[in-house]
UniProtKB/TrEMBL annotation:
Co-factor(s): pyridoxal 5'-phosphate
SUPFAM superfamilies according to UniProt: PLP-dependent transferases
Keywords assigned: Amino-acid biosynthesis, Aminotransferase, Arginine biosynthesis, Cytoplasm, Pyridoxal phosphate, Transferase
Positions of modified residues (N6-(pyridoxal phosphate)lysine): K252
InterPro entries linked to this entry: Ac/SucOrn_transaminase_bac (IPR017652), AcOrn/SuccOrn_fam (IPR004636), Aminotrans_3 (IPR005814), Aminotrans_3_PPA_site (IPR049704), Class-III_PLP-dep_AT (IPR050103), PyrdxlP-dep_Trfase (IPR015424), PyrdxlP-dep_Trfase_major (IPR015421), PyrdxlP-dep_Trfase_small (IPR015422)
GO MF term list: identical protein binding; N2-acetyl-L-ornithine:2-oxoglutarate 5-aminotransferase activity; pyridoxal phosphate binding
Further facts: May also have succinyldiaminopimelate aminotransferase activity, thus carrying out the corresponding step in lysine biosynthesis.
Catalytic reactions on record: N(2)-acetyl-L-ornithine + 2-oxoglutarate = N-acetyl-L-glutamate 5-semialdehyde + L-glutamate
Family designation: Belongs to the class-III pyridoxal-phosphate-dependent aminotransferase family. ArgD subfamily.
Descriptive protein name: Acetylornithine aminotransferase
Gene3D superfamilies the record matches: Aspartate Aminotransferase, domain 1 (3.90.1150.10), Type I PLP-dependent aspartate aminotransferase-like (Major domain) (3.40.640.10)
Subunit-level organization: Homodimer.
Pfam families found in the cross-reference section: Aminotran_3 (PF00202)
Length: 406
């Protein structure tokens, strides 16, 4: 007999690092989710840009069942067919020549940052070890990745943190010029900052970052954990910048919710990840790799990628119409189906209020910091769900405005 659990069970048995909603989802199909009470929600959050193909996608369910009946796990003293097929497809579809598999975006970034330092060590010596990243960036929750991330609140209380890391303003090339030197081993950036407020890199800025890295013999690392796998309308967002990184990390949508991640690199750089320098017990296991391969096969098609751009415009149009009526946002921005609506100065700090009222109305949305409402739905969300979802969101906006006038 299955034991009955409720939201109160969380407070009894779970570590208090999360503050989950009162409802507990139990079932999902496409872009709809149902909770324990049978209430239906439309999903504009996508598990934080993860469920790129929605919930319970039939092809992914069948792929998982088929692979589960063959092999789940092997040690990394041997390889497996799904991992090799997935790695081959990722290298064929991107700039990369080599792949390292992990289980999460944080792990992929940990590998990327270690590789950047190891490459510099191998080619230039131990003094070339400094990493530059950008304020408001987010790269994971390990001590290394949270230190590279540009949000001090995530390192508070965990000192001493790894050294040799500096930060500068995003989209400010002069700030980077002032920091970068021949001691820099890597510049780490998101082509569109996610947790930092859904801020795309200006194309000219990205090109100048690449040029500075080349000038100082530093590697360019693109964190595409959130922006990758079709999220921005191309398989990876770097394709839209005119810039090719040396290392790229990908996770989230890669497994549609199944834990899988990858670090992609050029052959020259990947050579420094020699035998014994890094590893992962579960990374590249056949079950995860089979699911990720199926995701790539579905997403990297004209139908899906062109559909992302069409849906982007639908989101812009709906958000603009709501804003014309309620005047709550000062900016609507983003790429593809990674979008943010920044609240007006009068509503500063109240983005979470929109999230709470949206949930009451049967809609999942996200925030990106205290001032931005974030949207990261399935890449194949039906247009009817978009329309109905925004009807619910408008009611949430109306409630938020009414509450703040009290």
């Amino acid at each position: 007999m299955t034991e009955q659990v409720t939201r109160a069970t969380f407070d009894e048995v779970m570590a208090p690092n999360y503050a989950p909603a009162a409802m507990i989802p139990v079932r999902g199909e496409g872009s709809r989710v149902w909770d324990q009470e049978g209430k239906e929600y439309i999903d504009f959050a996508g598990g934080i840009a993860v469920t790129a193909l929605g919930h319970s996608h039939p092809t992914l369910v069948e792929t998982m069942r088929e692979q589960a009946g063959k092999l789940w796990h092997l040690s990394n003293v041997m390889t497996n067919e799904p991992a090799l097929r997935l790695a081959k497809k990722l290298t064929e579809k991107t700039f990369a020549d080599r792949v390292f598999f992990a289980n999460s975006g944080g792990e992929a970034n940990e590998a990327a940052f270690k590789l950047a330092r190891r490459y510099a060590f191998d080619h230039f010596g131990p003094e070339k070890n400094e990493i530059i990243s950008f304020y408001q960036s987010f790269h994971g929750r390990t001590l290394f990745t949270v230190s590279v991330g540009g949000q001090p609140k995530y390192t508070e209380g965990f000192a001493p943190v790894p050294g040799g890391i500096t930060h500068c303003e995003y989209n400010d090339i002069d700030a980077l010029k002032a920091l970068i030197s021949d001691k820099t081993c890597a510049v780490v950036m998101e082509p569109i900052q996610g947790e930092g407020g859904i801020i795309p890199a200006a194309p000219e800025f990205a090109k100048q970052v690449r040029a500075l890295c080349d000038e100082h013999k530093a590697l360019l690392v693109f964190d595409e954990v959130q922006s990758g796998v079709g999220r921005t309308g191309t398989l990876y967002a770097y394709e839209q910048t005119g810039v090719t990184p040396d290392i790229l990390t990908t996770a989230k949508s890669l497994g549609n919710g199944f834990p899988v991640a990858a670090m992609l690199a050029t052959e020259e750089v990947a050579k420094s990840l020699a035998v014994g320098t890094h590893g992962s017990t579960y990374g590249g296991n056949p079950l995860a790799a089979a699911i990720a391969e199926a995701v790539i096969d579905i997403v990297d098609t004209p139908e899906v990628l062109e559909g992302v751009n069409k849906r982007h415009q639908l989101f812009v149009d709906e958000l603009t119409a709501i804003n014309d009526k309620y005047h709550v946002f000062k900016d609507i921005r983003g790429m593809g189906l990674l979008m943010g609506a920044e609240v007006t100065d009068e509503l500063a700090g109240h983005a979470k209020d929109f999230l709470a009222h949206a949930a009451d109305e049967g809609l999942f949305v996200l925030v990106a910091g205290p001032n931005v409402v974030r949207f990261a739905p399935s890449l194949i969300i039906p247009e009817a769900d978009i329309k109905e979802g925004f009807e619910r969101f408008e009611r949430a906006v109306a409630k938020t405005v009414a509450d703040l006038k009290k």
